[in-house]
Design goal:
Length: 477
């Protein structure tokens, strides 16, 4: 038997609704609707256009084929909406790149202490983590906090809950028992009542509200299923791994670089390395660190008026490598703005030649991301004790042949690129498992490997040049 599932997949710059067919030996995806996700600045605050996103989700579901088995929603992490006592949204959710959290993380770390924060949540210290956003927010009229996928699911079904993989990015979920940390919530003086019940991937959240059913043309009995609602959790669920000795890079606006574990790593060395322990499908732990990712390239392309990317990458491939590199995780690269100018200034301060052309800037970005991937992969292996035989690079970045090749060269490990649509595939497969149409996580991954196009890149073996560049940049060798 083959069933069709709708995957709503919302990224930081675009969203789409995909129709996925799953059956014995079958895993197919069709794009139903794609739409931009543009933040909007109002009175100095950067917001998500959440109502625009919801409208596009409804349009996508309306265009989806009849006879769907269920719907699942994933999105980026950390951001949320607040509902009042009547269940109405209190303003548009604020974008994680907004400046309202400037200085908040440092204040809370000083007040609460790094040890309690890390031992509770196992979460990487990032200034936009949900707990810092909540500390900067006006919660006076708030009765419920819903992460973005949970908010959209609430509007579709009326159900209230917090899917665990995304809840694990808030900094408020206890990494050991998977429950909200009441102690930490109290220490932060946050209203505990706003945190909804935890839901697991594969759990049926509810069925379509009558008005949603009428608007989309689907029956009111259509279930909405919790998936790995943090998009990286869904992407990792679709990594086509055949062994547990693998690392992953979920590469898009961000590069999420790490390994899959059964238990969190909460050592002092892990905290100092700023690694995170986030929830995965089937109770796994995504032990990883955020690398700034293709954001540097995306912002550079925007500054240049969005020229032809494949042509620019082909030019960059001809530029001598490792001439100029930057630390992509430097906070100066986090906000939107003139990225090429910031890259040039960073190179100048570090004593590297400033890129003299667009192609040189792109090569600088690609080399720098490969170096960051190298350093993070080696740290993940060392801190977790997990040996790595292969790196699976999934998501939009897997189409970037230059980045894949450079990542293999820099890490000294083979890189298997693909699938591009890992997040949507993981979303669909989690729904299919809830309906009994896909087996274990390992069996689902085997289905991905058997049905999706993949490409393997072998390392060049020239580790000395990469080690030298890493040393010059101050990264671990």
């Amino acid at each position: 038997m083959t069933e069709t599932f709708a995957a709503v997949d919302l990224g930081a710059s675009s969203g789409r609704v995909m129709a996925g067919r799953v059956g014995p030996g079958t895993l197919e995806l069709d794009e139903v609707r794609r739409f931009p996700n543009r933040p909007v600045r109002v009175n100095g605050t950067l917001h998500w256009d959440i109502l625009g996103l919801y409208g596009n989700v409804l349009d996508g579901l309306r265009a989806a084929p009849a006879g769907l088995a269920s719907v699942g929603i994933d999105s980026w992490a950390v951001d949320y909406g607040l509902l009042d006592a009547d269940g109405k949204l209190i303003g548009n959710p604020v974008h994680y790149r907004d400046a309202r959290t400037d200085g908040v993380m440092d204040r809370i770390r000083a007040e609460v202490g790094d040890d309690l924060l890390y031992q509770t949540s196992g979460l990487q210290f990032l200034p936009f983590n949900t707990l810092y956003q909540l500390a900067a927010d006006d919660l006076a009229g708030a009765r419920t906090m819903l992460m973005v996928p949970d908010l959209l699911a609430h509007w579709l079904t009326g159900a209230v809950g917090a899917e665990r993989t995304n809840a694990s990015t808030t900094g408020l979920l206890d990494v050991r028992d998977g429950a909200w940390s009441r102690d930490l919530v109290a220490r932060l003086a946050l209203p505990a009542g706003i945190l909804p019940p935890i839901r697991e991937p594969g759990e049926v959240l509810g069925t379509l509200r009558p008005d949603v059913a009428e608007e989309t043309g689907h029956p009111a009995t259509l279930p909405v299923v919790a998936v790995g609602s943090h998009d990286t959790a869904s992407a990792v669920a679709a990594v086509p791994a055949t062994t547990d000795r693998f690392a992953y890079i979920s590469c898009g606006t961000w590069s999420l670089v790490g390994v899959e574990l059964r238990e969190p790593v909460l050592t002092e060395a892990s905290r100092k390395a700023n690694f995170t322990n986030e929830g995965g499908v089937d109770g796994t732990v995504r032990y990883l660190r955020n690398v700034m990712g293709l954001w540097l390239l995306q912002e550079s392309m925007r500054a240049w008026g969005n020229p032809d990317l494949p042509a620019l990458l082909a030019e960059a491939a001809q530029v001598p490598g490792l001439r100029s590199v930057v630390d992509p995780d430097d906070p100066e690269f986090l906000p939107p703005g003139d990225m090429p100018a910031r890259i040039a200034a960073h190179c100048r301060r570090r004593g590297f030649p400033e890129p003299a052309s667009r192609a040189e800037t792109v090569r600088c970005i690609m080399d720098s991301l490969a170096l960051a991937h190298r350093a993070t992969l080696r740290q993940a292996s060392r801190l977790s004790g997990r040996e790595i035989d292969v790196v699976h690079l999934v998501g939009g970045g897997s189409r970037n042949e230059l980045l894949c090749r450079l990542t293999a060269d820099a890490s000294g490990l083979p890189v298997v690129a693909g699938p591009v649509e890992a997040t949507a595939l993981g979303n669909v497969l989690t729904q299919a498992r809830a309906h009994g149409l896909a087996g274990t996580l390992a069996e689902s991954r085997a289905l991905v490997a058997a049905t999706q196009p993949l490409r393997r890149y072998e390392p060049s073996g020239d580790d000395a040049r990469w080690a030298g560049a890493a040393a010059r940049l101050g990264l671990a060798p």
